[in-house]
Amino acid sequence: MLNPDGVYLGNYRCSLMGFDLNRHWLDPSPWAHPTLHGVKQLIIQMYNDPKTSLEFYIDIHAHSTMMNGFMYGNIFEDEERFQRQAIFPKLLCQNAEDFSYSSTSFNRDAVKAGTGRRFLGGLLDHTSYCYTLEVSFYSYIISGTTAAVPYTEEAYMKLGRNVARTFLDYYRLNSMVEKVAIPMPRLRKEKSPSYKHPLLRGPASNYPSSKGDKKNSVNHKDPSTLF
């Protein structure tokens, strides 16, 4: 919970000071965005710790217009990394009837450059996966039906449990994925990102650009073929 003061006032997007916190990950202020500043420093500390394996970052939000639960992911030049990124939401779709894989998208919209998913997707290396999990304020439609089912507190908690189940499935299948991994393609050289961060143990193998990006989403191959 990175917006406790704003939520206390009834805000679902803005902080107590009126900031949309999920647009300030590039350079959070310890005064104006203290929770982001603290969490960002903690993530960098964990990433630089050789004893810590930082494999997933999932930012959870409510969505005011779309139905169901769905995810946003990043776009990478590395095809293998891009394919692997699609595995977790694919597995979640199998576990959660209210999760929509068809609404899940992978993009690098310029307006999303300051989000946690975009920033950390560029900061962390190819062994880490960063997502935004969006869940409707209103309802969900189960595949094969047309009736909207209103979300309840229990339904939200059930989705959380299904996310935990998906981690279990992911790590059970991980050894199988490793065996059939495709060769990594040659990558084109990228320009250095415009933001700065403390020394890391190694640069990210590929990051979503935050400068001059146009709205872009890409359809990817069905990752179920990896199994």
From TrEMBL:
One of its GO terms (biological process) is proteolysis. The active site is at E134. One of its GO terms (molecular function) is zinc ion binding. Residues 1-171 form the Peptidase M14 domain. Residues 192-227 are annotated as: Disordered. Its cofactor is Zn(2+). Gene3D superfamilies: Zn peptidases (3.40.630.10). This is AGBL carboxypeptidase 4. The gene is AGBL4.
